[in-house]
Amino acid sequence: MSDLLNPLSPRNPSQQIHQDGTKTNPEQIKKQENDEKIYAEGYENVMLPSKGLFYKGDAHHIEHISIRPFDYTDEDILSTPSFYENGTIYTEILNNTIISKAFLKAKDLVPIDRDTLLIWLRSTSFGNTFKVSYECPNCHCGSGEGIKGNGGEMIWELGELKVPQYDQETFDKLFEEGEISIYTPAKNVHVKLTVPTIGSQQSLDKKFSLKKDKEKIKKDFFASITLLSVVAGVENDEGKIERDKNRIDQYFKKVRLPITDSRYILEQARKLNLRYDTKQTFVCKDCGHIEEGVEMPIMHRNFFWPESGE
Q1: Residues β-bridged to residue 67
Q2: What pLDDT is recorded for position 307?
Q3: Which of 158 and 58 is assigned the larger pLDDT?
Q4: pLDDT at 218 over 50
Q5: Distances in Å between the alpha carbon of 291 and those of 130, 155, 181, 183, 294?
Q6: Element at 154 (helix H, strand E)
Q7: How confident is the model at residue 20 (pLDDT cuts 50, 70, 90)?
Q8: H/E element holding 97?
Q9: For position 111, what pLDDT does the model report?
Q10: What is the DSSP letter of 184?
Q11: Looking only at Cα atoms, what is the longest distance across the chain?
Q12: Which of 114, 165, 167, 161 is closest to 3 using CA atoms?
């Protein structure tokens, strides 16, 4: 495994360097590791790109998660069709392999940490090379309908992925408060931004889905859900920070938050949401079409079935 993919290579967490130049406390790491040995042998400590900045309780500022490699029991999860159909396959997999006492549920992870753990599991069990069929948007070769029928294919080398990290200024702010303050350009609304966990996003999805069914609303709430998920708080007219999602939503409606402001909020929030840079250029062997910026589909069903078909 290449050293570029830090979560897979630093086997000794005591050597991990913080962004502020200090080292992890070896005694603290030793205590955590000793606690986790009670739960499993043969685990690995996978370093978290988020540094635990957005987590609460025992997981606050946690720098690594202990996780075990796949064993034969995980095959039952990977071969359960319903987990793929309802989109819970990766949640089930992580809940079954994470052994850290401070962090037991996959839904409590932020996306970058979830992806890092999935990449580690994929690499340790099936290797670094990830191949998927890709349908050319011009001649549809990936669907078996290509001009020559060769089919499109894209390849990612997981060991060459660089772990994203925050710049020093952003890291320092997040380390102190776990969020970032911004002011919107049009209404000058003071907003606190964060990175939502998988569970908090799912909670908002469920809430608005129930609202849609109850009130028999036809429109979707994707934009509202996305906006509210990244807003940790908003300063109200009395100068207090509202953190309840319902009150934040009500305040945005009260001030009639312009679409320019909502898009500005999302743009700033995207800078906090660390992601692996997996963009590649696809060149169709059938028709020569060039498609730039194709990202690795980590949620592709072939991720843990490298020898399966499409």
Answers
A1: 44, 98
A2: 57
A3: 158
A4: yes
A5: 19, 14, 37, 37, 7
A6: strand 153-157
A7: very low
A8: helix 89-97
A9: 94
A10: -
A11: 67
A12: 161
Rounded Cα distance, 201 and 107, in Å: 9
Identify which of 77, 67, 149 has the alpha carbon closest to the alpha carbon of residue 114.
67
> CA-CA distance, 36 to 101, in Å (whole number)?
7
* Helix and strand numbers, DSSP H then E, in the chain: 10, 10
| Of the listed ranges 18-22, 164-168, 223-227, 234-238, the one predicted with least confidence | 18-22
Where is 183: in which H helix or E strand? strand 180-183
Among 255, 254, 260, 250, which residue's Cα sits nearest to residue 228? Answer: 250
| Beta partners for residue 153, in sequence order | 133
pLDDT of residue 151: 58
What whole-number distance in Å separates Cα of residue 202 and Cα of residue 86?
A: 13
> Rounded CA gap, 35 and 13, in Å?
15
Element (H, E) at 266: helix 259-272
Q: Say if residues 211 and 217 touch (Cβ distance below 8 Å).
A: yes
What 3-state class would DSSP assign to 17? strand
Answer yes or no: is pLDDT of 142 > 80.
no
Specify the residue for token string 């772990």: 163
How many C-beta neighbours within 10 Å does residue 155 have?
A: 11
Whole-model pTM: value is 0.81
Of 213 and 79, the one with more pLDDT: 79
Contact by Cβ (8 Å): 181, 191:
yes
Which residue's entry shows tokens 């034969």?
Answer: 72
Q: Are 208 and 225 in contact (CB under 8 A)?
A: yes
